[in-house]
Structure formats: C-alpha cells, structure tokens
From TrEMBL:
Coiled-coil spans in chain: 144-188
Localization: Cytoplasm; Nucleus, Nuclear pore complex
Xref: InterPro entries: GLE1, GLE1-like_sf
Keywords linked to the UniProt accession: Coiled coil, Cytoplasm, mRNA transport, Nuclear pore complex, Nucleus, Protein transport, Translocation, Transport
Main location: cytoplasm
Protein name: mRNA export factor GLE1
A GO MF term: translation initiation factor binding
Any one Gene Ontology cellular component term annotated for this protein: nuclear pore cytoplasmic filaments
C-alpha cells in the first residue's frame, strides 16, 4: 500500500492539472456568495470590464456547468482512483501470485534438484557400496580360491597317501592271495601226485610204461622239485604272478601227466590182459570157429566196440555205480513210501524241501544262508519251521533218507523247470548244493544219480538202443518225456536239457559257503567231461548243445585253471571236432556252438557267465 499512495497523489495532481487546462485561469472565487458572478448580480449588476465575452462565457459555463465537472471529476477521479487502486492491487496481487508462483517453482525446482541430488547421492552411495561389496567378493573369492586350493592340495596329498596305502594293501592282498592259491595248488598237486603213484602201481609193466612215456615219465621227479622252488619263494614273501603261473602250470602238467599215465597204463593192462587171454584160451578149451561160444565172444567184442563209441569204460563204471547206489538208497525208505498212515508226514516233508528250494535266489547272502540252514537242519534231524508247521525228519526212522532223496530229486527238477528259463539262477542253486554235499556225501551221490537219470549226457553216455527196449523205454532212458503216449517235441526237450546241463556245470565251478574249503565236485570233473565227450562219436543236437552250455558256463574257469592245455583242446574242437559234427548236424545247436567258438577266436577268451557268485558271497 505504501507504493500505492504516492501513485494516488500523483493521480490527484494530474487530475487537477487537466482540470485547470480545461477551465482556463481562474483567479476569482467562482463558487459561493463571494464568487464574482454573485457580486455582479447582487450589487451593481454590471458586467466585468475586461474580457467580458470570455468571462461571460466562463461565467455562463460556471453557472450552468461548474458543479458538474468537479463532481464528475471527483467521480471520475474516484473511479480512476479505484481503478488505479484496483489495478495496483491486481498488479500487487499479480506480483504476489507471480512471486508465490516463482517461490513455488523455485521450491519445486530446488526440491527437484535436491531430490535429484539425493537420488544421485543414493545411487553414488549404492554404486560405492556395490563396488565395495564387489571388491570384497573379489577379495573373498580370491581367499576362497586360495583356501580351496590349499584344501585341494591337502586332499590330493591325502588321496595320494591313501592310494599309496591302498596300493600297498592291494600288493599285500595279491601277495596273500597268490600264496593261498599256491597253497591250494600245492595241496592239489600233492593229491594228484599221490594219485599218479597209486595209478603207476596198477600198471602190470612199469618198464614198458617208462618206455612208452619217454621224457614225460621224467617229469615225475622234476615236477616236485619245481614246486618246492615256488614254495621257497612263498616263504620269503617274494611271490609274483610269474610264480603263481608257474605253480598253476606245474599242476596242469601233473594233471595232464596223470591222464597220459592212466591212458598208457590202461593200454598196457588191456594189452597184457589180451595176451593172457590169448595164452589161456588154447590151453583150456579148443573152441571151433562156428560154435555158439565163439559167436557169443564175437557179439561181446562187437558190443564193447559199440559201447566205446557211446561211453568210455571208466565213465560207464561210474554211471553203473551211481545208478546202483540210487537203487539201493531208495530201499532205505521203501516202507515209508508204502505206509498210507504216513501220508501227511510225507506231505509235510515235501513242504519242508520244496518251500526253501523254490525260494532260493541270490538276493542277499543272508537269504542264501537262511535257505541253507533250513535244509541242513532238515537233513540233520533238527526241527524246522515251514509256513505254520514245525517239521522234524527224524520223527520217523526212515524220514531223513526220504527227505535227502526228495531234496536231490528236487534240485535236478529245478534245472529242468527253473534254470532252463532263468540261466543266471544256476549259480545260487549250485552254491547251496555243494555246501550240502560237503555236509552230506550221500546227498551228492543221490544228486548225481538223478542227474544221470534225467540227462545221461552228463556222464557223458549216449545210451544205445537194444532189442529189449521199446521205443518209449528207449527215449525215456535218453531223457525224453512222454505225455499221453506222445513224445515231447525236440525243442522242448533241448530246452529242458540246457537247464539240467547248466546246473550240473555250474556245480563244478561254484564256491561253497565261507567256512567250507572245497568243492566236492570241482573243475577236475569238467576236464574229464570235456575229454570224454570229444572221444565219442557226436550225436544229433545233444552233442552240440552239451558242448555249447559247457563252454558258455565253465569255459572261462577252465582257461584260468588249465591255461594252454585248455586252449589246445578248444583248437581241437574248432579244427577237428566241428567238421565231424557238421557232417551229421546242421541245426540250431550247431549254429549256436559255432557262433560261440567264433567269438572265442575273435576275443581270445570265454566270458564269465551272468549270475556267477563271488567266492565269499555268503
């Protein structure tokens, strides 16, 4: 307002100045009783002397309009004043608004700047923090890498130390294993050597034996000396693979020497016996050529010649002995079989045999041990819990022989039913079988009896047909089944035979439970089987099947035990036996055998069969 009032005074001065210009020079009083016009009218009524017209004009204007201009002026003045004041106020208000606006804008600008500065500061702080954190991470990462490297170095040194320990342990383990193997070889060598001495004593002419064997006979003295050298290395703990191989080769040589001596002695004794017969017959009786005695002698010779093509004399004797034992053993429980009052007891015994045998598998060592314990307890006359019953075979005097016979028969049947479809199961059955065989020798003989009954090719024996045999009797003796008078198909027969063959061959290489040291029907029987079957005339289907299952199951172990000797036999099979076999047989069994032998030629070895158990599995 202080600025408005001077403007107002200026406005007044301006207004009056303009008014003066409009009214001319006014020296007299124009308003009121003292005005010039009033005096003239009241006293003498004369007109002014000078400038009458002008005064008169002014007077006329004054009298007629003088009140109006001032009011008007004042009014105008007031209006203008108000307008000026309003304009001043509006201007002032506008200034205030502009000032306020500017203040607001400045504050907003300052706030925005401060905000931007704050954000920038925050960002810079964040960036600084991130850089600091990043640097710390880098430093920490470097420290971690350094620590990790230190730890890795420590671990590496530890691993190297442990590896060195493991290597030392492995060397010690291998050394111990080699020593144990050599000990086993030594025991086996002593056994073979004693058998050789016993066999030599059966020879009717030792001089002729020495002459026929030649340099081989001298091995009898050199082999023990060579083995003693290996044993001395064992005592000084300087045994390596070379010594182990040397011991194995000595054992193989002794076995081969034994076979050669046996064959040579057999020839010498047979020749001696023929000479004795030729000497004795003319002295005792003169037999005319056409008599019945001469005819019977010729028939006997022909029969023996025919048998030699089907089975060896030694194997035939073994076969006859086992079959005789089987027949005699069945008489031990004949009364129990015929007693109708013991029907439930027989049924319980069958359950005690069938349930554990059917459950045998290699799922775990504890599982195998449990099944073995139940069967061992049953044959030992102890009470066993089967399902919801407690069964004791010794409850009846003939119970244990009955159960033993059932068990042997059941195992062979498992080869027929189970292993023919699941070959890997052969080894878990085999390890139980040889463990029980160690405990009960008669069980092993019964088992062989049922093996030879169901599959005479295990002897090996190709049973010839005689005039007394009907076709059905003959084929049953060969292992075929008859259903409603009809013989089973060949493919089904061969499948059953593969199961029985595989179980029998698995027994030869199976390991018993840990506390038993030996296999009662070990790899020596495999060598005898192979040597025997190669000497016989091959038969359709079954010869190829037997050889194929044999090599597939025990080929790898034969090579490990007999080494070069076995490799020579395999070459004989490939180069000499297979051509003979192909002359009579070109079917599936021969093809499968040929494929197996071709794979052997490519790889140089037979693979381990699936399912074989480790020596200390249970």
């Amino acid at each position: 307002m202080d600025k408005v009032l001077p403007d107002f005074e200026n406005l007044k001065v301006s207004a009056f100045s303009k008014y003066t210009k409009l009214t001319g020079d006014i020296n007299n009083v124009t308003i009121g009783p003292n005005s010039v016009g009033h005096q003239n009218c009241s006293y003498d009524g004369t007109k002014p002397k000078s400038n009458t017209k002008k005064v008169s004009f002014k007077k006329e204007q004054t009298t007629s309009t003088s009140p109006l201009p001032l009011t008007y002026v004042l009014k105008e003045f007031e209006t203008q004043r108000r307008e000026k004041v309003q304009e001043a106020i509006d201007d002032r208000f506008s200034k205030f608004e502009n000032f306020t606006k500017r203040q607001k804008e400045e504050k907003e600008t300052q706030w925005l700047l401060k905000q931007q500065a704050f954000v920038q500061s925050v960002q810079e702080n964040e960036q600084t923090i991130l850089q600091t954190i990043s640097q710390q991470d880098v430093n920490r990462s470097k420290q971690n890498e350094k620590l990790i490297k230190q730890y890795q170095d420590m671990i590496q040194r530890k691993l190297q130390y442990e590896q060195q320990l493991e290597k030392n342990k492995e060397k010690q383990r291998i050394l111990n294993e080699n020593i144990e193997k050599i000990k086993k070889y030594q025991l086996e060598f002593k056994s073979v050597y004693q058998e050789i001495i016993v066999v030599i004593k059966t020879c009717t002419s030792t001089e002729e034996l020495k002459k026929m064997l030649g340099e081989h006979f001298k091995l009898l003295k050199s082999l023990p000396e060579s083995f003693d050298e290996v044993i001395s290395r064992c005592k000084s703990y300087s045994v390596d693979e070379e010594q182990l191989s040397k011991a194995a080769n000595i054992l193989i040589k002794s076995k081969n020497l034994k076979l050669q001596i046996e064959e040579t002695i057999s020839k010498i004794n047979a020749k001696k016996k023929e000479e004795q017969v030729q000497v004795q017959v003319p002295v005792t009786v003169e037999v005319p050529k056409n008599t019945s005695a001469q005819k019977h002698l010729d028939e006997t010779k022909n029969t023996l010649v025919g048998l030699n093509q089907c089975v060896s004399i030694n194997n035939l004797k073994k076969y006859a002995d086992i079959k005789q034992f089987l027949s005699q053993y069945s008489s031990l429980f004949k009364e129990l079989l015929n007693d109708e009052q013991q029907k439930q007891y027989r049924f319980d015994c069958k359950k005690a045999v069938n349930i554990p045998v059917n459950a045998i598998s290699a799922v775990s060592s504890e599982h195998l041990r449990d099944k073995y314990t139940k069967l061992n307890n049953l044959l030992s006359g102890k009470t066993v819990a089967i399902a919801d019953k407690h069964i004791n075979a010794a409850k009846q005097p003939q119970g244990i022989p009955f159960c033993m016979d059932l068990l042997a028969k059941k195992f062979v049947l498992q080869g027929d039913l189970m292993i023919s479809s699941n070959p890997e199961a052969a080894f878990c059955y085999a390890t139980i079988i040889i463990s029980l065989w160690n405990d009960f020798p008669d069980f092993g003989k019964l088992l062989l009896g049922y093996f030879y009954t169901q599959c005479p090719y295990l002897v090996p024996f190709y049973i010839p047909k005689t005039e007394d045999h009907t076709n059905e009797e003959y084929y049953i003796s060969l292992g075929y089944h008859y259903v409603d008078g009809q013989i089973e198909k060949q493919d089904k027969f061969l499948k059953r035979m593969t199961g029985i063959l595989r179980l029998y061959f698995a027994i030869m290489i199976a390991h018993p439970k840990r506390d038993q040291a030996k296999n009662p029907h070990d790899i020596k029987n495999a060598w005898n089987f192979l040597a025997s079957i190669l000497k016989l005339d091959p038969q359709l289907d079954i010869t190829a099947t037997s050889l194929h299952i044999f090599l597939e199951t025990v080929g790898f172990e034969m090579e490990r035990v007999y080494g070069l000797a076995f490799k020579k036999v395999v070459r004989i099979i490939i180069n000499k036996f297979m051509p003979l076999l192909k002359k009579i047989d070109t079917g599936g069994p021969v093809t499968r055998l040929e494929v197996l032998l071709q794979n052997y030629k490519v790889k140089g070895y037979f693979e381990k069969p699936h399912g074989i158990l480790t020596p200390n599995f249970w």
